[in-house]
């Protein structure tokens, strides 16, 4: 599914936090890595500096990726680099399309902490513009060497729609190759909107009986989906939450200490439940866990 991984870098330690994740994925999946560095202007006096930086990172990435290569008899992981000039997000998206990149792995910000790559700037533009799966790594103040380098547990929020299930083949591939546990998660809303008078709506709580029925239906649905994973030898459990979807995803991700949240960018009615700018947006901004987004 993923033959090529693209990692955008801007020269900062924070941007490089994405590298261990890309290395682990490449090692487990047997795919190649391309490091992309984009300059906003063609300034020749910095050209040599950029080239030296990328060459250094390429060599380090080759060595580190070998630690994760599962099949030592398979070909070694190829790590290459490209340096482009222009609008950063546009160049990343265009290159990913042109080279048929399977997965983009990038941090939510890079140089100067929040100045360049903060979600809402480059990373957010890439998320909105690309059709490629993208793994966003939360870059806080932790140095790259202190970050977790193993993806052992993946949380998969589902809303019951076919659109939200688009992420399932991606998770199945990753979990199988990484030997990771999958936790399926669905959120039940404790109340619903009632349109009492024209133009206005009020929240009406579900009756205890209705709420319990919804919880049981969610468990049955998740158990059915989970059977597909278990048939492939993937350790799979399920959880049901009650409340707001984004808040519950963040809560359970922290509570059970998952290493990645994998979700589609929308579900019911295209934009009503999982739309980027809605719950996925909240999870990206408020959560601390790396997020894999797959556009439906």
Summarize the structure.
The chain has 296 residues and is an alpha/beta fold. The chain has helices at 19-29, 44-68, 88-98, 122-129, 168-178, 208-230, 245-255, 279-286, and strands at 4-9, 32-39, 79-85, 103-107, 134-137, 153-157, 181-188, 191-197, 200-205, 236-242, 260-264, 291-294.
Mean pLDDT comes to 83
Shape: globular
Largest sheet geometry: 10 strands, mixed
Q: What's the CATH H-level homologous superfamily of the largest domain?
A: HUPs
- Coarse structural class: alpha/beta
Strand content: 15-25%
Low-confidence stretches: 110-120, 267-277
Question: Quaternary arrangement of the chains shown?
Answer: single chain
Strand order of the largest sheet: 3-2-1-4-5-12-11-6-7-10
Number of domains: 2
CATH architecture of the largest domain: 3-Layer(aba) Sandwich
Number of helices: 8
Under CATH, the topology of the largest domain is which? Rossmann fold
Radius of gyration, whole Å: 20 Å
CATH class of the largest domain: Alpha Beta
Query: What is the strand tally?
Result: 12
The helicity comes to 25-40%
Sketch the topology as an H/E string, one letter per element. EHEHEHEHEEHEEEHEHEHE
Describe this structure in words.
This protein is α/β, with parallel strands linked by helices and 296 residues long. The chain has two domains: 4-146, Rossmann fold (3-Layer(aba) Sandwich); 153-294, HUPs (Rossmann fold). 36% of the residues lie in helices and 24% in strands. The chain has eight helices and twelve strands. It has helices spanning 19-29, 44-68, 88-98, 122-129, 168-178, 208-230, 245-255, 279-286; strands at 4-9, 32-39, 79-85, 103-107, 134-137, 153-157, 181-188, 191-197, 200-205, 236-242, 260-264, 291-294. The chain has a ten-stranded mixed β-sheet with strand order 3-2-1-4-5-12-11-6-7-10, with helices on both faces. A two-stranded antiparallel ribbon has the order 8-9. α1 packs across α5 and α3 packs parallel to α4. The chain is globular and about 70 Å long.
